[in-house]
Automatic annotation (TrEMBL):
Ranges where the record places region Disordered: 1-22
Key word Transferase present: yes
UniProt cross-references to InterPro entries, sorted A to Z: Methyltransf_25 (IPR041698), SAM-dependent_MTases_sf (IPR029063)
Residue intervals of the Methyltransferase domain: 70-161
GO biological process: methylation
Keywords: Methyltransferase, Transferase
Protein name: S-adenosyl-L-methionine-dependent methyltransferase
Organism: Rhizophagus irregularis
Top-level taxon: Eukaryota
GO MF terms, alphabetically ordered: methyltransferase activity
Signal peptide: none
Amino acid sequence: MKRGSSSKSSKSKENNNTRQNEQKQLQYYLPNHVEDTDIMVILHFLARYLFQSIFSAPIEHKFSQEDYKILDVGCGPGTWLLELATVHKFPKFFGLDLFPIYPTEIKPDNVEFTQGDVLKGLPFNDNTFDYVHQGNMLSVFTFEEWHSVIQELIRVCKPGGYIEFTEPELATNTGPILTRFYDALITLSDSRNVKIRISKEIIKILESSPTVKNVDYKIATVSLGTKKGGNAGQAYMEVHDGYFLNDPMPETMCKFMELSQEDYLKLFKDAKDEVESGVAPDCELYRIWCQKAQ
């Protein structure tokens, strides 16, 4: 794992090896049968395992405060919030998502979910939350929308509170077959004005904002596939499967790659075989956080 820092925080670095991590006494492990789990849930467990934490902002000492409020924007099924809420009973947890796939009845008493669209403005007053989290939204917003989304997260955060992002990045040093999929995905994203590699841009946006300080980040790296990446690499491969094979992606990608759906599925299998044969690219996950200025 690498730790980086922007110009607004002290510089430090640390390295970690995924294989060595698996041999140590860990606090967090990957679940079994990740192939049966939703992509967002897999990414949650993968990030938790690689970083050995559920979040990276320095806030855990605040969890004993009964009036501490935490918001997760784009919460999906609520996995991130629900795990925290089962361990910490004092904070009040709030989740918001465009689609109500979160639990509405069976949930801890200190968790509330709301349906809403961050692009239309969060339904909360200024300076409401002590900590605001958002994760795995790299393909959701255009580059211009990212600016407004970040400002909206800052708006609802209290002065002195923290905002944190967790985002996966496209793999680097890919083999020729997987590169065809990545090139097509980048072309597709560019056509929507979506910057698919967004993590470094988030850092730049935060660095340039006069309303935040102490911008910091960590990078965790895992090799794609089981052969080099072990269980973590297999989990990330499952994310790839879901992203490239779940509807409507095959139909959309076929147009950009000029392939029939049958040839698309065969080529994707060839890309997976390429990875497991030893051409295993490195995948990065970013944790980025900052503090709202007083």
